[in-house]
Fold:
Amino acid sequence: MADDSNKNKKHFFKEMKAELKKVNWLTPKQLLNNTTAVIVMVIVVSAIVFVLDFTFENLNSNGVEKLKSIVQQDETNTIDNTVQNNEENNTVDNTADNTVENSVSNETNNEIENNVTDSNQVQE
Structure:
């Protein structure tokens, strides 16, 4: 068995050496060109990402935040106006209610006075 194991190992290494001879290896010039191309691409992609990040950060801090503050001010103004309108409506409603109550009270008082006057006239 030890003999078979040695044969398999030798056979494996011979086949590996034969396969490595079939590989198309890059020349030093091709390796330099490919390495340069990869480095240039990494720099270009990094620059693009940096520009996009800088642009979106400025948009966020200058544009979106200002829009948020404007919207919040509009919402606050709307709420304030709504509260003020509700207060005015309540005042108008209270005035109208008081006017109606006063009218009803005056009519009731007038009717009572008329009834009393009629009663007094009947008794005389």
